Amino acid sequence: HSSAARCMLYDEIMWKVIQKDGADHLDIMTAVSGKRKQLKLTGPFCYANKKKRGDVQLILDRDKKRLEVHRAIKAAVHDLHKSKKKKVGMDKGLATLLSCSSGHEYGFNFSQLVNAEAERINRRNTNRNKYIQAAKELRHELSALQAKLAIKHSAKTERRLRNRIGSLERRISRLEERHLGSKLYHRQHARKQCNMERIMNMSIRKMLLTEKPDVLVKEDLSFTKENLPKAANRYEAKVRRKLSSWSKGTLDDRIEYLCDCLGIRTVDVNPAYTSQFCPNCGARFSERKGTHHELTVCPNCGEMNANTAAAVNILRRADDKNITLYTPYKKVEKILEDRYANKQSVMA
After folding, report:
1. Percent of the chain with pLDDT over 70
2. I want to staple 311 with a disulfide (CB 3.0 to 4.6 A). Which of 5, 11, 80, 101 is the partner?
């Protein structure tokens, strides 16, 4: 309806290519909830089966009277004029999605979306569990009766077994139809997930366009016991569980994809103890404060933002030859404590 607009950007969650009537069709979201538009492609789309589809642009060429689908591809770029690279450290969190070493933060109150969805799923699963258990017990009894029916019995006993089997099958069918359906369950979760991904994409884009880094240093959060120390408290354990439960690598994939599009190199570093030691003096933080533990207290430097302090530690770890990506977390702790002890002895 606009005479000026000629370009629309579609995020990777807003489009897909489907096969219909022997031809490729571009299936895109519309402004109407639940309604999608399908456009027949005049040529083959070579990115249709890629796991990471990326973003596309729909360009309206008024002169040729056609719509064009444009997609950015990765290409090697050599900048001969830029000698000094700007490095930015980034800490990934839950209450605030992204915190940078520059002191800026992006994606405030992201935890409200994650918490609401995690609690909703938890309540829904709690209500479903009693029906799942009931259906499991009925299937176990049904299996035992079917095995018993295979043995030869009198006509009266066989009739009684068949009646009981029929009753169990009807009860299981009612449970599956009324209480264990998954269509609405998955549709509601997909809607919430889509909204979280939208906020996440906006935060990453805003961060990259504001910070303008040449190299983005980020922590490698794999949430495994081998790579991360045990959670120091219940809050930290809860944050790890929620952050790892919703993202499934989505956050890291989107950061790397958007960095590739903008020609930004990404570097993964060891995440151990980045948020527990002061980036200024090297002392261990004495306490965490705030609703989401966003504030911390250094015994020497005083109160500071825990997220941006962690981002500074992440940035410095990119050039740390003693702490590599695969250094065990216990060894990382000892290295940091020894550095602070040596610094104190030199000052004394």
Report:
1. 84
2. 101
d(CA 258, CA 9): 14
Q: Calculate what percentage of the chain has a pLDDT beyond 90.
A: 27
Is the pLDDT confidence value at 224 over 50? no
Give the Cα separation of 192 and 196 in Å (integer). Answer: 6
Evaluate if residue 248 carries a pLDDT over 70: no
Distance separating alpha carbons of residues 22 and 40, to the nearest angstrom: 11
247: buried, middle or exposed (CB in 10 Å: 19+, 13-18, 0-12)?
Answer: buried
Say which amino acid occupies 41.
L
Q: How far apart are CA 46 and CA 103, in angstroms?
A: 41
Give the residue ranges of DSSP H helices in 179-305. Answer: 183-211, 234-247, 250-262
Q: How far apart are the C-alpha atoms of 161 and 180, rounded to whole Å?
A: 26
Strands 36-40 and 23-29: antiparallel
Question: Which one-letter amino acid corresponds to residue 24?
Answer: D
Instruction: List own/partner pairs for 198-202 with CB under 8 A and 24 or more apart.
Output: 198/11, 198/13, 199/97, 199/107, 199/110, 199/113, 200/97, 200/107, 200/110, 200/250, 200/251, 200/254, 201/11, 201/254, 201/258
**What is the CB neighbour count within 10 angstroms for residue 289?**
11
CA dist 246 and 251 (Å) reads 10
φ and ψ of 283, to 5 deg: -75, 155
Q: Is 23 left (phi over 0), alpha (psi -120 to 50) or beta?
A: beta
Q: What is the dihedral of CA 39, 44, 46, 52, to 10 degrees?
A: 20
Report the range out of 40-44, 224-228, 271-275 with the highest average pLDDT.
271-275
Q: What type of residue is 73? A: I
* CA dist list (Å): 144 to 126, 133, 159, 166: 28, 17, 16, 13
